[in-house]
Design goal:
This protein is of the alpha+beta class and 138 residues long. It has one domain (15-133). It has helices at 39-43, 51-56, 106-119, 124-133, and strands spanning 15-19, 22-26, 33-35, 63-68, 77-82, 90-93, 100-102. It has a seven-stranded antiparallel beta sheet with strand order 1-2-3-7-6-5-4.
């Protein structure tokens, strides 16, 4: 695999760094982390569902940035979007390869949000909706 450049620092190369047992690409200069598709779910605190889908589902509210995807070689720009619809956390991701860029400290903020979600008891209505959503409809 080719060396990856930091989308923020541009002149810095990303190095491999272990985050919660998963090798991710890390910028020594700014502290940002590049996550390949599927890695966000591996390095965050465990929670039901696909966090990466949550990041991508509200792409209509997204903003194209000037930062280039470190993985795609065709000049693809990263897109800034809310981590989750109701969240104030904004992340950058690539629509082409589904990679995610987290700035320094954003992983900690995401984990705090996940922990807060776990503390909120689910309503009966929500439990019923989840149950119904898992039923096969043909």
């Amino acid at each position: 695999m080719a060396d990856l450049r930091c989308p923020i620092c541009v002149d810095s190369m990303l190095t491999k760094h272990s985050e919660n047992g998963t090798d991710v690409d890390f910028c020594e200069k700014c502290g940002g982390i590049w996550l390949d598709k599927g890695e966000l779910n591996k390095i965050t605190h465990p929670i039901a569902g696909d966090l990466e889908f949550c990041c991508h589902e509200n792409h209509q509210k997204s903003i194209i940035t000037e930062h280039l995807c470190p993985l795609c070689t065709n000049g693809t720009k990263l897109v800034e979007a809310y981590f989750m619809e109701y969240s104030d956390i904004r992340i950058e991701y690539c629509k082409c390869c589904d990679g995610i860029w987290l700035e320094k400290g954003e992983l900690d903020v995401i984990n705090r949000e996940i922990d807060a979600l776990k503390e909120v008891p689910e309503s009966l209505d929500h439990k019923i909706m989840v149950f119904l959503s898992k039923l096969p409809f043909n």
